[in-house]
Amino acid sequence: MESPAAPARHTSPHPSSRWLPAAAALLAPVALLIPGLAGATVLGADTGLRFDYTPAQLTETCKSALADARAAVAKIDQRAKGPVSIAEGLGAIEGAVAELSDRLTTPTQMNVLAVDRGVRDAASQCSDDYQAFLVELAADPAVYALAVAAKQMASDPEDEQLAAIYIENGKRAGAHLPDAQRARVKELLVRINSLQIEFQRAVAEDKTVIELTPAEVAPLPEALKAQLEEVAGTNRKSLRVSEATISPFMQQQSSREARLRFLTLYDRRGGVANTERMAKAVALRQRVAPMLGYKTWADYQLASKMAGTPKRALDLVDKVSATLLPKARAELAVLAQLKKADGDASPVEAWDYPYYEHELEVSRYAVDKEAVRAYFPVDKVVPAVMDIYSRLLGVRFDAIKEPKAWAPLIREYAIYDAASGAGLGWLYLDLYPREGKYGHFACGNFRVGHDLPGGGYQLPVATMMGNWPLPKSDTPSLLSHYEVETFFHEFGHAMHETLSHTHHASLYGAATRIDFVEAPSQMLENWMWQPAVLKKVSAHWQTGEPLPDELIQKMIAARHVADGVYWTRQTFFGVYDLQMHLATGKVDPTQLWLSLRPKLTLMHDPPGTYANAAFEHLMGAGYDGGYYGYLWSKVFAQDMFSEFEKAGLENPEVGLRYRREILLPGGSAEPDVLLRRFLGREVSYEPFYSDLGISSH
After folding, report:
1. Within a domain: residue 532?
2. Distance between the two ends of the chain, CA-based, in angstroms?
3. What angle do CA 7, 9, 10 make, to 5 degrees?
4. Does the reported pTM lie above 0.85?
5. Which of 90, 262, 511, 659 has the highest count of CB atoms within 10 angstroms of its CB?
6. What's phi and psi for 228, nearest 5 deg?
7. What confidence tens digit (pLDDT) does each residue in 96-127 have?
């Protein structure tokens, strides 16, 4: 067994060198832009990563890797007291960062992936220590000085961008401040990181269940009934309250009281302790921002994003909210009529909306979501989606027969460049729920691509996490159309994390501006609403027939029926986040949530709840002060999609251009530069407005 402190490195055998400028290679195949991708390679199951840590081994790995990184940085800092080249200075720092990332990205992610609780605990501590080191590194005045020097010396655009990012991170961490003030900033940022990790663990390990009577069980879909457990000594059954169960439960539970009970439990996940953690984090952020020269945390966060200022973000969010609020009101009025027909004339509330929205789709559009689910068995969807991405982006996915993974039911794929046969990296699909696992659907990386000091290239490893319904003895795992759309979206992130090619780990893949990072995947969601594509990804689990044309047309007709409610909810999240982080005085995150929700969505939360206690995006995913980015990036997503609409959704020339100009560079250039390269023009807001039915005038 390899030493836990020195994991094997899986690399491309090809030496790395600078790729051709995008403008000069506009029509060149992607393979030609990555030197070395000229001959076929074979990737096996072993990615060089380790997943079988005991808690003690993981702790030792973490301590050893961090000690080595600190020693490397100290040595570079000492050497850099005199003039040094970029390679000897900032390049060497980046090399130490890449080495640490290679060694610890997997151990830290085990905090929400590992089967064993002890491993999860050790991984949480490792994650805390790792984040503390990154804060420490960013605040290091010597590293900041090396970045400033590198920026002045850089002649290569990627080196210049790396230096700019280090300078930006240094300023954000206080590297330019006097020693005492810098130490205080570092201390506060480390405390914020610790709160974020505690918050995430509380949500991931939540075990809330709801008890149901036989009458409440009866209307539930079969996929949920299969998950029920007997409650000892009663005629009741229990169901886990989670991200995976809320939609099917709320859509099909005819008992309003049961829906209210479920949503109340759901909106208490994370507990009061998490509301306190959020309040503490907000207060600490308020203290940090002025110390770094910013009025508020929102100003601090947006200074490093595409939007630039809170005002630009709020202007967009407010415009969408004001325009779509009347549409949301009209949508709720239609649902109120359905509710009244059931003998209840009270307003439509949050615990009513999913049920009656589903009823509307069934009655007006004849779209039965459970009937649609029968056409999306997992074993059809996954290969079909991969086939679409293969043809669109010029890649190939080979399934590994015996995956080397961290839990059962995980799929592993090797990714190859279709033109050259060269191995590009790996992708893991961890698609089913288990105790302690991350509760949302998401994509991340176990390892990013980057140059290696002795030559060659470190190949990336991406992972996709989901919580799909488990297959039963007589029925395969069946997905809703929404789950298929989400999978297609997250697969777009996986491609960003495996088809990028940058020299520096800090610029790889989705390490781009956070209010742009969703745009590529949001663009790709559009594929899941195209009749020809829906035919390709569907096959009834019993008959093998694809979705009927009539049903597809009904689904498409119903697509925008809830746009008002959906986007006002998104704008609520964005406004809540920005207001919370624009404040300069004491903030009660729960009260702010409860006061804004009815104003911006026209619906209330259940009494006695605190849904913000499970709002992980604002407590560790980097979306604090930046949740508006989902809406912001939608602008760019729809404009990029317009290029595919003009040329054909599976046009390989546009697909390769997208791979080359958007995915390949990762964060090595600013998003607006990437967009101009791909579009051949400045960004237009018209496709975005058109998609949402908003007039731009």
Report:
1. yes
2. 65
3. 135
4. no
5. 90
6. -70, 150
7. 999 999 999 999 999 889 999 999 999 999 99
